[in-house]
């Protein structure tokens, strides 16, 4: 890492936002403020990993993921599977430019590009956990949340054109169109002191709190407690379905508690009788057996001082 007093940042920008005038103006403003800020634009699979490696070799202080939850996960994944400790790696920042921006919204990161970048100057990096998922002999990482069931179907089936036109509302419309044909899934979910088996319509395993354009499946999750928030929603009928819809969009803990099984665990294992798809920050992973662990304090990330996802240091797991 460099010892220079001039901040050295590398923005890894999703190619979809390369022509965004607000982003260009924000980059220029931070350069005027004294930040040495270089930009790399992703075009195809593998670009983010290559750019992260280059940034580390160049002694960059902070890597900024410019995009949605998928871009954040891709950059975080590349950092996470390196051999270096969190303290030896560049810090991580987020410039939210996606459709839903679920992690950014739950974390309180500004939508406006210049404000999001200036946050990196104002907020020292803090340790965060990551979610690690093993399935089919492969390891996947995520910063936010793994979801299955109805929410996953909504996220993966929402049309790209609709998302561009309507933003997060596209997920809601797609979800409403599915309400009459939700098919329950079946699985066994196990963890320390926990063993549940049955049908479910939604499953959330969170480091972050929401996915799929605002579905608050894990409304109490923290990114620095060393634990996963697990939410299982069984099939619903009548008023309970309306209650669940309110909980998903507004994050009402009491409403979610009425309909869901909720636990806080360091790891879970999932066994399904049929292939099950989990959405991992936008990446669908299909398998019949999953193991998901919380990896405590794997990275350092710039988050607002009042970020709701940060727990009291005295109360989080070591």
Automatic annotation (TrEMBL):
Binding site for ATP: 42, 68-74, 99
Residues annotated as catalytic: 283
Note accompanying the cofactor annotation: Binds 1 Mg(2+) ion per subunit. Ca(2+) may be able to substitute.
Annotated HAMAP family: YegS (MF_01377)
Annotated Mg(2+) binding sites: 222, 225, 227
InterPro entries from the UniProt entry: ATP-NAD_kinase_N (IPR017438), Diacylglycerol/lipid_kinase (IPR005218), Diacylglycerol_kinase_cat_dom (IPR001206), Lip_kinase_YegS (IPR022433), Lipid_Phosphate_FormReg (IPR050187), NAD/diacylglycerol_kinase_sf (IPR016064), YegS/DAGK_C (IPR045540)
Species lineage: Bacteria, Pseudomonadati, Pseudomonadota, Gammaproteobacteria, Lysobacterales
Location in or out of the cell: Cytoplasm
Functional description taken from the UniProt entry: Probably phosphorylates lipids; the in vivo substrate is unknown.
Enzyme Commission designation: 2.7.1.-
Alphabetical list of SUPFAM superfamilies matching this protein: NAD kinase/diacylglycerol kinase-like (SSF111331)
Coiled coil: none
A GO CC annotation given for this chain: plasma membrane
GO BP term (any one): phospholipid biosynthetic process
UniProt name for this protein: Probable lipid kinase YegS-like
Record's keyword terms, sorted: ATP-binding, Cytoplasm, Kinase, Lipid biosynthesis, Lipid metabolism, Magnesium, Metal-binding, Nucleotide-binding, Phospholipid biosynthesis, Phospholipid metabolism, Transferase
Gene Ontology MF terms: ATP binding; lipid kinase activity; magnesium ion binding
Superkingdom in the source lineage: Bacteria
Enzyme class of the recorded protein, top EC level: transferase
One Pfam match: YegS_C
Cofactor dependence: Mg(2+); Ca(2+)
Residue ranges of domain DAGKc in the record: 4-137
Principal location class: cytoplasm
Transmembrane spans: none
């Amino acid at each position: 890492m460099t010892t220079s007093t001039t901040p050295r940042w590398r923005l890894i920008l999703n190619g979809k936002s390369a022509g965004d005038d607000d982003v260009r103006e924000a980059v220029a403003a931070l350069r005027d403020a004294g930040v040495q800020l270089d930009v790399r634009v992703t075009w195809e699979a593998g670009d983010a990993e290559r750019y992260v490696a280059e940034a580390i070799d160049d002694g960059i202080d902070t890597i900024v993921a410019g995009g949605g939850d998928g871009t954040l996960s891709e950059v975080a994944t590349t950092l996470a599977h390196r051999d270096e400790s969190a303290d030896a790696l560049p810090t991580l920042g987020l410039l939210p430019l996606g459709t839903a921006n679920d992690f950014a919204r739950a974390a309180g990161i500004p939508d406006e590009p210049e404000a999001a970048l200036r946050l990196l100057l104002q907020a020292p990096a803090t340790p965060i956990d990551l979610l690690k998922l093993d399935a089919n002999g492969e390891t996947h990482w995520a910063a936010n949340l793994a979801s299955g069931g109805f929410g996953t179907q909504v996220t993966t089936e929402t049309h790209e054109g609709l998302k561009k036109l309507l933003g997060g509302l596209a997920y809601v419309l797609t979800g409403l169109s599915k309400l009459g044909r939700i098919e329950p899934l079946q699985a066994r979910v196990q963890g320390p002191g926990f063993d549940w088996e049955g049908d479910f319509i939604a499953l959330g395993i969170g480091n972050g709190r929401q996915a799929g354009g605002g579905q608050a499946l894990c409304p109490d999750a923290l990114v620095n407690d060393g634990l996963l928030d697990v939410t299982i929603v069984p099939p619903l009928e009548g008023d309970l379905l309306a209650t669940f819809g309110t909980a998903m969009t507004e994050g009402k803990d009491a409403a979610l508690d009425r309909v869901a099984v909720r636990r806080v665990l360091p790891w879970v294992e999932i066994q399904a009788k049929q292939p099950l798809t989990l959405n991992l920050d936008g990446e669908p992973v299909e398998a019949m057996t999953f193991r998901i662990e919380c990896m405590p304090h794997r990275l350092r990330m710039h988050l607002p001082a009042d970020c709701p996802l940060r727990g009291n240091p005295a109360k989080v797991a070591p």
